[in-house]
Design a protein that fits this description.
The chain is of the alpha+beta class and about 140 residues long. The protein contains 6 helices and 5 strands; from the N terminus they run H-E-H-E-E-H-H-H-E-E-H. The strands form 2 sheets. Strands 1-2-3 form a 3-stranded mixed β-sheet. Strands 4-5 form a two-stranded antiparallel ribbon. The longest helix is centred in the first third of the chain and has 11 residues.
């Protein structure tokens, strides 16, 4: 654990196993990937270096596809994803990351280093993997 003066950093609690998908994929394809990875969140890949990452959650699918009775095989990910998304740096103190989550009501944030997603962080990982470590 890379603590410095008791600081726990995002890289210490982030999950490095996350799924990603292209924006042109259908929601049906996204659902299959979410199910196989046992996740409710996918990172939407950049189309090019000047683009930004997006995020698709099961909540987005519920709101924009299921609730509106749209066919998952006829809706593309880019139509319902969030983009741009708030990301965090791996060296960020988890206390600041937690404040960011609270301020913007985030459920997940990608951890980006050198313009690449290297992990995902959630409020659960901040508390259970981060704060909990300080009491052991």
């Amino acid at each position: 654990m890379s603590t410095n003066n008791g600081i726990i950093r995002v890289k210490d609690v982030m999950k490095t196993d996350f799924g990603s998908i292209d924006g042109v994929a259908t929601v049906a394809e996204a659902l299959k990937q979410m199910k196989s990875l046992k996740t409710a969140v996918l990172i939407v890949n950049k189309r090019n270096e000047d683009d930004e990452y997006g995020m698709l959650t099961s909540g987005d699918i519920a709101r924009h596809v299921l609730a509106k009775d749209r066919a998952p095989d006829r809706v593309n990910v880019y139509e319902i994803m969030d983009k741009p998304i708030i990301s965090v740096h791996p060296d960020m103190d988890i206390r600041y990351c937690s404040r960011l989550f609270s301020k913007y009501n985030l459920v997940r944030a990608p951890v980006i280093e050198n313009n690449r997603v290297i992990g995902m962080v959630s409020p659960n990982s901040l508390v259970l993997d981060g704060l909990y470590k300080t009491f052991q």
